[in-house]
Each structure stands twice: as C-alpha cells, then as structure tokens.
Known about the structure:
The protein is mainly α.
Amino acid sequence: METLLFLFPQFNYMAPKEEAYFRMFAVEDLQSPAMKDDSNKERKSRLSLFLTKSGSHENVSPHKKTNTTTSNISPEAALQWSDSFEELLKHTDGVETFSQFLRTEFSEENIEFWLACEEYKTIDSETKRLSKAKYIYTVYIESEAPKEVNIDYNTKMAIQKNMEHPTRGCFDAAQMKVFSLMKKDSYPRFLHSDIYMRITRRKGPGATMFRRRSRSCVFNERGEAKTEPSAW
C-alpha cells in the first residue's frame, strides 16, 4: 500500500469506495499498452463485480419491494416533487425515492451518474478531481462500462479526450443529456408509479384531496394522478 501511495497520491483524497476501486486497478497504469489491451475485458468484469459487492449496483426486480422505507415522508412533502423534476432534485427524500423507482426500471445509473457529476463539480483539489473524473469515466462513460449511461458517440469522445486533464465542466454535456432523459422519460412515469402513489395517498382524517400548483398532475382522494396542466 505504501508503494501505491507513493506512485498514486490520489489515495490520500479518495472516498472509501473510490479508494478500493483505485487500489484494484492502479497497478494496471504501470503496464505496457499491449498488456493493458489484453487485460481490458478482465478489468471491466472485475469492476462490475466490485460495484455489485460494494452495493453500488443493485439487481432489483420490478416487482420486488425496495429496502428503504418511505413511511417517514409526508404526503405534503412528496406532493412538492410533482411541481417539476428540478424541484424533486432539491429534496433528499425525493432523490432517494426517485432512485428506488429507477432501480425497478433497471436505470438507476442515470441518477447515480447525475449525482456523481454534481459532486465532481464541487471538487477544488486538482488531484482529487483527476481521480474522480477517472472513476466517473470508467464506471459510467466508456464503452461497456459496468453502469454505462446512454449518451451519443461525439459526447463520449469529447469526454475521453479530456480525461488526461479533466476540467470542472468536462461532464456537463453528458450530464445534461442524462438529465433531459430522466426529466422527459422517467420522471412522468415516476409520478404515476406505485411507490409515489403509496406516499401521496397517505392523509389525515377528513382530508379529501391533495392539490397544489403543478405542471404534471393532481391527486384525487384515492391517490390517483390525473393530468391537468391548469391545476392549482
């Protein structure tokens, strides 16, 4: 380990999961290009296995209940998430519940990538930023990455070129594409999902309807969503 710290000082700045990832693959940076090509498939396989064991990648059936409870989230708080996707992302409980929903659709890599990019942009240390950029690229961007997000070839190549000296905004284009995909595709389905309905239909005695200004939907007394663009 001391040798790796000397050769790769990034260890001093990493979170435990990223440190473990870097520890597994740092020695490969010392290999010749030919050796790297030979071990590329094995490396990706090992990384995928590592992410699974570390809990970063969950194989959740669409019909399987998630482990995280939503019982402590009030219907009033959850209804704020229907105002807009941007509003949902402002709430920790909203992000966690949305993540649970994405796991049922096997697309949790989208919100995980978006959150990783948000964290990446807050990093001031150049050394730590380089390590985080390589982690994001290896896990989410490169071809056949264990949690590869759906972005176009040109965006992927632009990121690849930036990996030697990654800038603070090197993932911005990819992050925006993934954000748009979640907003236009996943978010509307989330608002009509069982996991969201279970939260919003919980109400106190005498309540008849939860109703607030929303561009997405309103909820009747049975907790059913109804599209109504002009609703309050």
